[in-house]
Amino acid sequence: MTQHQEDTIVALATANGVGAIGVIRLSGPQAITIANSVFKGKDLRKQASHTIHFGHIMDGDVILDEVLMSLFVAPKSYTRENVVEISCHGSNYIIESIIKLLIKHGARAARAGEFTMRAFLNGQLDLSQAEAVADLIAANSKAAQQAAMQQLRGGFSNQLQALREQLVTFASLIELELDFSEEDVEFANREQLRKLVHEIVLIIGKLIQSFELGNAIKQGVNTVIAGRPNAGKSTLLNALLNEDRAIVSHIPGTTRDTIEEVLNINGINFRLIDTAGIREATDTIEQIGVQKTMEKISQTAVLLYVYDVNALSATDLTADIAELVKPSIPAIIVANKTDLLAPTAATIQVQLPDGTDLVQVSAKEKQHIDELKQLIYQRTVKGQLSADETLITNIRHLEALQKTEQALMHVLEGIQTQTTSDFLAMDIKQGLHYLGEITGTVTTDDLLDNIFSKFCIGK
Ligand SMILES: Nc1nc2c(c(=O)[nH]1)N(C=O)[C@@H](CNc1ccc(C(=O)N[C@@H](CCC(=O)O)C(=O)O)cc1)CN2
Ligand SMILES: Nc1nc2c(ncn2[C@@H]2O[C@H](COP(=O)(O)OP(=O)(O)OP(=O)(O)O)[C@@H](O)[C@H]2O)c(=O)[nH]1
């Protein structure tokens, strides 16, 4: 797919605000001519691609700045168009003046994501790779960065492409049958087709399943800390955050009754959510707090239930566990304040539900906190994360895969019930259509606008 853009666009590629240098990027057929018209130095039109040139930006006779010009000659650039990058001094005044000057000389201010959109339209990236660019910019943990990088490098796209090609082969054989429909021929071996579609359905099913973890990696894994008042929830939160205070230390938008902090364990971000203590509902306002806590618990990826080993009877502990621990959500029982352990308390023995772990810690003395961290990681991630396995992190991809799966299930049903070729062909095509939506083989302007408008300006 190649489309020619007539405009030459310009935007600041580096972050807004004062920095040592700012990089202004131009892309489009006139990028080199426009840059050259404001540049005093070598004639940029005569320079080779991927070269850098020192000189001055001139506004008439006035020197605006001393700069470096980086040259990318089409099609060897990020957008596959002519690209010039001006590295200037990072003052807001200088940056604004240079951009204005370039607009005066024929460039147009770029819209959000327009550089990457051009890279997509010109075939440099497919759609899922373009989306990965945005994910990469937003990545703030090792796992999120790796998932985005894998997608940017085309891991996911290649996998989908391979599936598509196999299906296309069958689709064309079945189409051929339609041409000979009078003669009752079968070019596409139904057993082979069934096997292939079955295999593809399995692969797609796995990709669909990977979304839960992929999404958690991208957004952070929700980890609710709950327990009775005074159990030591806040102290535990602080102990967990102690050395590893994450890049994002306080997530805005959280309500007063719950606190959210980000904790990085083994490259994955966990959103620790400290809740209002359960069972303190003596008045309506507190009741609302408890309700919120129950709601948070129902949505968490993993639950840390904290209790005070010296204050809770086995009966109460059993009751709490029965109420809070649900089979669908991994739970870790955190027996806290073991530094004060009274000899009798140690004898509390309760029956833990299947899949529940118990770990004894002292939040105050920071004992066994690392053990707890590794347990949190294991219960949510380990066993599911391998280096080269594709993770779906994007809800748009998830939806397209689910629709593909549905269409292919129809194909399987059709083969089973010996449906006619035309119906089979229709369902296969439907599946191909949805697969194509992911990589952008099939797109609409709305879809593209929707995706790229979420990018920042200059990307
Ligand atoms: N200064 C700068 N840094 C950047 C970018 C950029 O555009 N400018 N990028 C993006 O925003 C990323 C790098 N992406 C890029 C991808 C391709 C090409 C490019 O010139 N490709 C040519 C030549 C490849 C080669 O020489 O091997 C090509 O694909 O033909 C440049 C940057 C991150 N860093
Ligand atoms: N000895 C000891 N005291 C602890 C430990 N953890 C917490 N505490 C103490 O227990 C008291 C309650 O701790 P918090 O962390 O405020 O408990 P909480 O569960 O957040 O309480 P609420 O906010 O009321 O729900 C504080 O005085 C803590 O210092 C521990 O491991 N050992």
From TrEMBL:
- What biological function has been recorded for the protein in this entry? Exhibits a very high intrinsic GTPase hydrolysis rate. Involved in the addition of a carboxymethylaminomethyl (cmnm) group at the wobble position (U34) of certain tRNAs, forming tRNA-cmnm(5)s(2)U34.
- CDD domains per the UniProt record, alphabetical: trmE, TrmE_N
What InterPro entries does the record tag this protein with? G_TrmE (IPR031168), GTP-bd (IPR006073), GTP-bd_TrmE_N (IPR018948), GTPase_MnmE (IPR004520), MnmE_dom2 (IPR027368), MnmE_helical (IPR025867), P-loop_NTPase (IPR027417), Small_GTP-bd (IPR005225)
* Record-listed GTP binding positions: 230-235, 249-255, 274-277
Location comes to:
Cytoplasm
Q: For this UniProt entry, which residues form the secretion signal?
A: none
The name of this protein is tRNA modification GTPase MnmE
PANTHER family cross-referenced by the UniProt entry: TRNA MODIFICATION GTPASE GTPBP3, TRNA MODIFICATION GTPASE GTPBP3, MITOCHONDRIAL
Family named by the database record: Belongs to the TRAFAC class TrmE-Era-EngA-EngB-Septin-like GTPase superfamily. TrmE GTPase family.
Q: Which residues form the TrmE-type G domain?
A: 220-381
Q: How is the cofactor bound, as the UniProt entry phrases it?
A: Binds 1 potassium ion per subunit.
Q: Tell me one Pfam family matched here.
A: MMR_HSR1
Cofactor(s) demanded? K(+)
Provide the binding site for Mg(2+).
S234, T255
Describe its partners and assembly state. Homodimer. Heterotetramer of two MnmE and two MnmG subunits.
Keyword terms of this UniProt record:
Cytoplasm, GTP-binding, Hydrolase, Magnesium, Metal-binding, Nucleotide-binding, Potassium, tRNA processing
